[in-house]
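Standup notes, protein team

Yesterday: finished cleaning the Actinoplanes utahensis set.
Today: MerR family transcriptional regulator structure.
Blockers: none.

Input for MerR family transcriptional regulator:
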Amino acid sequence: MLIGELAERAGTSPRTLRYYEEHGLIHPSRDANGYRQYDDGELRVVHEIRTLLADGFGVDDIKPFVACLRAGNSAGHVCPDSAMVLRRRLAEVDGYLARLTEVQQRLRDQLKEIKCQMTP
């Protein structure tokens, strides 16, 4: 399929697909006139990329997941390199949640303080 068809089927734009290609995430073949050609496997890879980006992963973090899919695995997260990235990302998310919980408590405390001052 051509880049426009892949973009439509994946719910993205040709520009985004060229960006993925620039970063080595997708690998089109080229036909005689230089047009990019994609097989159905690339659609699966693009879906994986989009999901991981939506979950906050960076482009470099995504590479092990793509490699895992290209190695014939059923999912991009089942390989050791992907698991390492998942562990690191989970630790980051846990840290964010801890900081957000602290902010949440501080805001609650400040609101309690305001209520106490407003009560005669």
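Follow-up from PR in the comments: Strands lie at 29-30, 36-37.
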